[in-house]
Predict the structure.
Amino acid sequence: MRIGFALPQFHRQAYGIAQTARFASAIEEAGGASLWVGDRNLAAVRPVVGYGGRGSTIPEELNPAADPFVLLGVAAAATSRVLLGSHVLVAPLYPPVQLARSLTTIDLISGGRLLPGFGVGWSPEEYQAAGLDFTRRGARMEEVLDALDTIWTTDPARYEGDHVSVPEHHAPLKPARQPRPPFYLGALSERALRRVARRGDGWLPVIVVPSHVHVDRLVAQRSLLDELARQGGRDPQAIDTVLRVNIDAGTSTEKVADTVKEVHERTGIDHFMIDSMYDVDTVEGSLEHARQVLELVEKG
């Protein structure tokens, strides 16, 4: 199994981001496989839609949020082996030229270790702050992916869609990963899984330990994804999976490790991203938590 960990980005860990380079280096030295960021441009005081598209509240842990691109860049410079991923960037919020530039820079600094994960998001206020139509986020996502693909694979590059426009421009600086970094896509609904089946190189589901661990649902979602991929003429084996594991406050490291092992045995998923922001307050505490999880998982 490959076990990765979230960089210090949210909640109280965000106030320790000056330690990001040391954290990243130490995770690599301890045997971690990957380092990850999420994305929160803002957490509305009175949200129209709540966390994950449900309810009407957003966890206070998401109020402090550090910049994901800067953190990945720091981690890229501080490491030499671990993969560097986003689970997930709300891609439609970003102009594709700037998104491509930031991700290309990170991929080049890291020598081709970037795993860019994208999602459409659930916060109308984030779209309002970006001057974008929340109701068209799915269509904009499709065009942002198209534009990224064009920018990363052609020179000069140009893209024209209904929601995204990129004028023809010189684009000689390409990512280290060829022909482009893989597209990992977050998806829970059938509609979103269809997008993964059509164009995703990877799928990014999520569980919460111990409150929302639904292994049967994961199996069913992956089965649907595989069938949709086959219907579209794609090999399901070409679509990777990285499972995000959020941790409820007060959860033991033994419970986290046992859940990871159980999910691996029942689903075949072999790459996990552990996020301790709800459970651990400090960067040092998060690092120690990660070491314990790695040790417990390795014991089998």
Remarks:
- Residues 2-299 form a domain with the TIM Barrel fold (CATH 3.20.20.30).
- The chain has a mean pLDDT of 97.
- Residues 10 and 65 are 5 Å apart (CA to CA).
- The longest helix spans residues 137-153.
